[in-house]
Amino acid sequence: MPRVGVVGATGAVGTVTLELLAERGFDDVRAFASARSAGRELAYRGRTLAVEEATPAVLGSGDLDLVFFSVGTEASRELVPPTADGGARVIDKSDAFRLTEGIPLVVAGVNDEAAGSEPVVANPNCSAIQLSCVLKPLHDAAGLACVRLATYQSMSGAGDAGIERLRAIEPMRADLMMDWDFDGEEFSEEWKLRAETQKILGLPELPLQAACVRVPVLVGHAQAVWLETERPLAPAEAAEILVAAPNVELAELPTPGAAAGRDAVLVGRIRRDPTADHGLALWIVNDNLRKGAALNAVQIAEGLLARSALAA
Length: 312
Ligand SMILES: NC(=O)c1ccc[n+]([C@@H]2O[C@H](COP(=O)([O-])OP(=O)(O)OC[C@H]3O[C@@H](n4cnc5c(N)ncnc54)[C@H](OP(=O)(O)O)[C@@H]3O)[C@@H](O)[C@H]2O)c1
What we know:
Layout: E1 4-7, H1 12-23, E2 29-33, E3 41-44, E4 47-50, E5 52-53, H2 56-59, E6 66-69, H3 73-85, E7 89-92, E8 120-122, H4 126-142, E9 144-153, H5 159-168, H6 188-201, E10 208-214, E11 221-229, H7 235-243, E12 248-250, H8 256-259, E13 265-272, E14 279-286, H9 290-306
The structure holds NADP nicotinamide-adenine-dinucleotide phosphate (NAP).
């Protein structure tokens, strides 16, 4: 078993990462966070892990084989390079390296082969992960011509701070609904969703337009998607393809409540979109903390282990 580090272990994604690693029997695990949480104790497989301060020296010491990062962009920029230089394989959940050339951006079950021998693998935005799980098999079958979508994203997508804001605010204030950077035209979440999905699918020119908002839901991102394919694709045929797709499950009317705590990306309401020649409309819901974040990272690691791309 590899020597594993979880950086950001006290946060929303880190907590789920530890749960998943424990379930899968990873035993040699260390927990890291900022100096604020150093010394805190976290339950892990019947014992406690003392949280260590994440510093370049400790992470780059060569004592770790595999390190999951779920910290903010700046912390990843500072800590990921020394960790990789120290010899560990890094799976990073922030947006620091996702669009960097030469850094694979991987959704397990979609483009696993992209994770070659590079020291750092980027784990995409939660919305791009669930979308790619559904778009990839449909593209393989009928060729994607364009994608439009609206997202309804839960507050836990903004981490522990988002969860606290939801708990604290009653009723939800309108200015909480779009909490990303705005460039005058698009929110950062919207262009990230386009650029990351294009990179994951290997379709850099795919027209993709999104409108993203947060909704007062604790866990589970929903997406209303309208896509056009190059060749005709009947809803029943799309459903057959999606039933067989990895990490995807069909559901009649998927809700965030149904998706929360589950691994699968739920897809429902697959129907013809009569506003386009080969138009299809669907509704996708996923637990943003699991397949949208921690589970995808753990699946990437399992893929690397299976291919012996990591010291075992
Ligand atoms: N939540 C989601 O659904 C989701 C989905 C996709 C991507 N992400 C991305 O995943 C990352 C983590 O998100 P989250 O939702 O888990 O955030 P979070 O709940 O705010 O947790 C952040 C974690 O990072 C740690 N941290 C902060 N600054 C640090 C530093 N300088 N050095 C070491 N550790 C530091 C915090 O430790 P302390 O306890 O010491 O503060 C905490 O453990 C972010 O990049 C986010 O954009 C999140």
